[in-house]
Amino acid sequence: MLFRSWATSHADFPKWGHVTSNISESMNSWILEMRDQSYYGLHVGMVQKCTDLLYQRRQSYESEQAELPPQIRERIRDVASKVSRMDVRPSSSILYNVNGRVVNLQVRSCSWLSYKQTQFPCVHMAAAISIAGVPLIDFVHEVYKVQSLCQVY
């Protein structure tokens, strides 16, 4: 099996919005009320919980009128609110030094490496994007947009 199939560090695209370091604890808390059931009962309960979750998420995304869901809009506002504190020094129209980090807008990279992993602009990239006069949403990967989320769910 190729590393890019399962390892975040080798993935060509983002696979999820956050990384949980202790999956077993997360799973145990998710199935807490089902843990004393038989294997069949546990299976049925997990299938029901998953289908309910998928249905709820699909319903919420289908009713969303904006291009981005609320939690992503909030992340953009949070990043954008920190841009004014950044020291941005343009080297060219595509290359910027932002608080000691190198941002290249043409190849969509930041030496902080957050964008490579998440495909979501970090504060350094957001500061460079702001100076370049480009909408921040142009640098948000398609997987975060409502249309993509509706296809997933």
What is the assembly state of the chains in this entry?
Answer: single chain
Gap from first CA to last CA: 26 Å
Rounded average pLDDT: 88
Q: Report Rg.
A: 19 Å
Number of helices: 7
Provide the structure class.
Answer: alpha+beta
The percent of residues in helical segments reads: 40-55%
Q: Order of strands side by side in the largest beta sheet? A: 1-2-3-4
Tell me how many strands there are. Answer: 4
Shape category:
elongated
Order of helices and strands: HHHHEEEEHHH
| Fraction in beta strands | 5-15%
For the biggest sheet, the summary is: 4 strands, antiparallel
Question: In words, what does this structure look like?
Answer:
It is a single chain. The chain is an alpha+beta fold and 153 residues long. The longest helix is centred in the N-terminal third of the chain and has 24 residues, at 39-62. 46% of the residues lie in helices and 8% in strands. A hairpin with a 2-residue loop joins strand 2 (95-98) and strand 3 (101-104). A four-stranded antiparallel β-sheet has the order 1-2-3-4. The chain has helices spanning 3-6, 23-30, 39-62, 70-82, 114-118, 123-132, 146-152; strands spanning 88-90, 95-98, 101-104, 109-110.
Summarize this entry quickly.
The protein has 153 residues and is α+β, with helices and mostly antiparallel strands. It has seven helices and four strands.
